[in-house]
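Please, structure for the following, as tokens.
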Amino acid sequence: MKYILLDRDGTIIVDKHYLSDPERVELFPNSAQGLKTMQDAGYKLLVTTNQSGIGRGYYSEEDMHAVNTRMSELLSGYGVEVKAIYFCPHAPEEDCGCRKPAPGMFDQAIDDFGLDPKECYVIGDKLCDVELGLARKARSILVRTGKGRREEASCVGKADYIADDLLDAANFIIKNK
């Protein structure tokens, strides 16, 4: 089974800076279509998300789960199923092993699903997402949504592809199967 590990904020949904209100969840244009295309091509979808707002005390783990549930509900309306959502609740200064680009969330997905990183893609809007892929020798795609345009220069030569959005990423994946 092939898997795609996706960042949440700035990649699937609009980054609303420490989002804690599920009513504010908004899918990017082409997010659901891109994810559906990936899923229809035989990929299972997983989310890996840094949520430092929990560690900083800005919102609770329950708030984050409510946002994740809302995102999943919106995606399910398009026939998209996220198999699991992994999150790092730590602030950057906590020096944990799960905050991207550290591979803790990827390693947990390997344990949970028995996935082969070389058969995976990691997609996100930041260098830390690309570096997560590199850490486990997965292919990586930077999307220009969210912070992607600002991060693009630092990802050139590291990302396997730089996509306009998740639909563009899906088309790249399908062409390179």
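The beta strands are 2-6, 43-50, 82-88, 121-124, 139-143, 161-163. The mean pLDDT is 97.
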